[in-house]
Amino acid sequence: MSECIFCDIIHGKIPCAKVYETKNTLAFLDIAPVNKGHTLVIPKKHYPTLFDLPSELGKELLEVMQKVGEALRKTVQAEGINLGMNNFKPAGQLVFHAHFHIIPRYENDGLSLWPQKKYNNNDEMLALAQKLANNI
Ligand code: AMP
Ligand code: ZN
Hints:
- By secondary structure, the protein is α+β, with helices and mostly antiparallel strands.
- It has helices spanning 5-10, 58-75, 122-134, and strands at residues 18-21, 25-29, 39-43, 80-84, 100-105.
- A five-stranded antiparallel β-sheet has the order 1-2-3-5-4, covered by helices on one side.
- A hairpin with a 3-residue loop joins strand 1 and strand 2 (25-29).
- The relative contact order is 0.17.
- The chain binds adenosine monophosphate (AMP) and zinc ion.
- Adenosine monophosphate binds next to loops.
- It comes from Desulfonauticus submarinus.
- Residues 5-112 form the HIT domain.
């Protein structure tokens, strides 16, 4: 066993319920699904978070996520699809091998998005947008 459970899956050391693979990516079912069919899409190489992923992989990852999402609509009659990625512990990342969650959703499935806060006023919001822009 290596230190990374997803690398172990890639190398066939532990099993997974494989859905699809490409040269550089693997898609398999999440063992503890939010809804049945919840699929993880991962790069075959080990990169800990979004910020370590080479941007050249983006096209292939996006295509796989689209294919999996379409298959979920056909297979488990998903009425909606959430795409999610947790980066770093405070955001809920448990496995430090970058991965995307493709989650089938249904009307009235009991889940809701995160609670939303407010800016004090529009100026505060615009000033923050400008600060962010300055850091890009
Ligand atoms: P995250 O919290 O974003 O790091 O998500 C890690 C996900 O990996 C969780 O949703 C787990 O249920 C899932 N997971 C952990 N181990 C396995 C495994 N062996 N096979 C499939 N999914 C797994
Ligand atoms: Zn890994």
